[in-house]
Amino acid sequence: MTPNVATPSPALQPATQNTLVDALVEQGWYVGREAIDLELCAALNQELLHRAAYNGLDEAGIGRGQQHLLRKDIRGDAIHWLDRESAAQRRYLDAMSELQQALNHALFLGLFEYEAHFAHYPPGAFYQRHLDSFRGRANRVISTVGYLTPNWPSDGGGEMVVYHPDDPSQEVARVIPEAGTFACFLSETIPHEVLPTRHPRTSIAGWFRRNASLGGVLDPAR
C-alpha cells in the first residue's frame, strides 16, 4: 500500500488569480490578505532574516546599469535577488510562473519573465513615492509584493501607500505589511511608496517583464 503523502497547500490561494485579473482591469491594482500560504511565508521570512543577520544582503539603490545609485534619502532597504537556491524560493517562483501564464492568457500581455528580490527594511527605513517603470521606456509591466513578516504590530508603520494613476496625490489603498498579503499593480501607472517602518519589515518585490531586447541582445534583468 502506498503511504499517504500530504499535498502541500497552494503557494497562492486558488481564488487569487481571477480576483487579481479583475482588479488589474478595473483599477490597475490588487491587494489580497492571506493570499500566500503562511508556511511558505514563514520559510521565506526565516531565509531572509538569516541573510540579514549574516550580511547576506546588498544595499538597494535606484536606477539601473551605469545609472544605479545608492540613495538612502530615497530608499533604505537591503535586498537579495531570488535565484531558486532554496525550496521555498522555488515554490514561490513556481507560483509566480503560474500567475504569469494566467495573466498572459487573460490579458494578452506577452509577459516574458519574472524577476524578484527579498527586501529587508530595518526600523526607520522607507521608500519614497515612485513608479516602478517609466511609460513607454521600460519592460516592467506588472509589479508584485509578497509580505512575509508575521504578527505585524498595529504601530509598526511600514505600510505601502498606493496612489491613483491619474492623481498621484490621491491615496487609494494603504497595505499593511502582514505575512500572507499579496499586492499586484501596473508598473508604469501606479505610484506607490513605503512609509517609514518602526519594525523590521520583510517582503519579496517582483516584476513581470516583457522582452525588451534590441538587436538580438536580451535586455538585462536588473
Explain this structure to me?
- It is a single chain.
- The chain is α+β, with helices and mostly antiparallel strands and 222 residues long.
- Helices cover 22% and strands 28% of the residues.
- The protein contains three helices and eleven strands, in the order H-E-H-E-E-H-E-E-E-E-E-E-E-E.
- It has helices spanning 16-27, 38-53, 87-107; strands at 29-32, 58-59, 78-81, 113-121, 127-130, 140-147, 160-164, 167-175, 182-186, 192-194, 201-209.
- The strands form two sheets. The chain has a seven-stranded antiparallel β-sheet with strand order 1-9-6-11-4-3-2.
Fold blueprint:
Blueprint lengths: L15 H12 L1 E4 L5 H16 L4 E2 L18 E4 L5 H21 L5 E9 L5 E4 L9 E8 L12 E5 L2 E9 L6 E5 L5 E3 L6 E9 L13
Antiparallel strand pairs: 1-9, 2-3, 3-4, 4-11, 5-10, 6-9, 6-11, 7-8, 7-10
Helix pairs in contact: 2-3
